[in-house]
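Give me the fold.
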Amino acid sequence: MVSDELAGGGDGARRLLVVDAPNVDRVHAGLLGRPPLRTERFDPEALTAWMDGASKSRAERTLFTNVRQPVPAGVEGWIRHLVDAGWKVFAKPKLRPGDDIDDEMVAHLTSAEWTQVTVFSHDSACFVDPLMALAASGCVVTVLGFRECAGNLPHLDGIDYVDVASVPGLYQSLPPRVRLVDLRPQGSWVEPVAN
């Protein structure tokens, strides 16, 4: 059961933030061309500040992750930091290539009558149907991610899409990106990253 504080305080709001950590890391690594360093990963405090913004209530902050076995150095410390900062973390061992946390994320999304849900992921295969159902029920739904890597998530009716560059301090720096959403009518050059 979600506590009143995490579920949105006393104003009746039930707000949820879901971070799909394996997906976020995989997409970020694809843009960088290598796994992100610890200092290059998203800042959970900036994400919390953006999510809560001017709201009078705190969102339930949840992060779902797979953990390779044996557990890599630093993972337990990272999870401890999140828990100490008020995050709920669902961790599942990655024993085989197909092991994932998609079912658990969707189950959590549908576990309560949320008034606002924000999902940080690019996984349209996992999230389109449940997010569309939430939006149809009157829930305010937002998806956060690297727009150019999110498939059809940025184009869903009734769902707001926010690019990571719009969240202050979420990343210390962003990798080179190919973004065609604001392409000028006369066209633009897309410059090479390296020679």
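The radius of gyration is 17 Å.
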